[in-house]
C-alpha cells in the first residue's frame, strides 16, 4: 500500500511545506493509484483508510489538499470499477452472441469465466416485443437477419438520427433492467441475457425451469402489449443452446403465421409444424389437392378456412365455433356443408377431419391463398 500511495503522500508533504494545493498532474497520479487499487482487488474502504493514516503521519497535512487527493483516489477507483463492469458486460454479450451463432472458438474456456458448464442441458427463451428491438447499449453488433427469424422480427431498414438513438437507448435500458432482475435472483453464473435478431434472449440451465418463467414475467411487465415469448426445448451442450434458441425463435414465427393468440409459445407444443415444413413439396401437394376447390366459393376461401380453424379449435363444437367467428350456428353448419361439397372432405369423418386440419395448417404456414402455389 505504501508503494501504491507514494504519490499521495508526496503531494501532501508538498502541500504541508508550501501551502500549495495539488495540481492536475498530481491529482491524475492519485486517480491512477485509485484505479490500480481497484484492479488489485482492494476495497475502497481500505484504500481511503490507508490514505488517511498516511495523512495522520504528517501531523500538519492541510485538510483542503487531503480532501482533493482522497477524492481523486476514489474517483480513479470508481472509474476503474465502472470500466471493469462495462468490459465484463461486453464480454458476456459477445460470448452469448457467439454461443447463439454456434461459433466454437474457445467457447468452453470462455464459458468457465462466466461460471457456465456447457456440457450440461440449457434452455433458451426468446422474447419479441411488439416492434423489433433496435440495437443499443446491450448489443455487440448490428441486428442481423437470418433463416431463424423472418417476418416482422427483422424487417425494415435500419434508421439513424435522434429518434432512433432514443429508441435504441430505451431498448438497451429495458434489456438491462430485465438482465439485472434476472441476475439479482439467479446469479450471473446461471443466466445469460442478450439482444439478438431484434429479440431479447435468455439462456438458462435446464435444471432451473423457474428461470424462463421469471423471464416471461419480466417481459410481461416491461414490454408493451403485442409481445410474444417462444420457449425452446432443453438441449445439451453448446450445439443444444443453438438448437433451443432456434426452436424458440421458430415458435414465435409459427405463432405469427398461424395467427395463434397465446403470448407464450412452447416449441414442444408445436413440433408438428417443423415436420410439416420439412417436406414442403408434400405439404404443397396436400393443400392444393384438398383446398384448391375452395377458391371457387362465393366470397373466396377466407371465410371457409376461418370456419374450419374455428371448428377444429373448438373440438368440433359448432356453437362454440360460431361464437368465435361472431356468426350464427346455422351459418357455420352451412359453411361446413359447402366445404364438404367443394372438397369432398367432411370434418365429421375422423380420417377426413385429420386430412382437412393438416391441410388448413399447411395453408396457414404457406400463407395460402395469398401466395399461390405452383
TrEMBL record:
PucR C-terminal helix-turn-helix domain residues are 304-360
Name the domain of life.
Bacteria
Record domain CdaR GGDEF-like: where? 104-253
- The family this protein is said to belong to: Belongs to the CdaR family.
Protein name from the UniProt record: PucR C-terminal helix-turn-helix domain-containing protein
- Tell me which species this is from: Streptosporangium subroseum
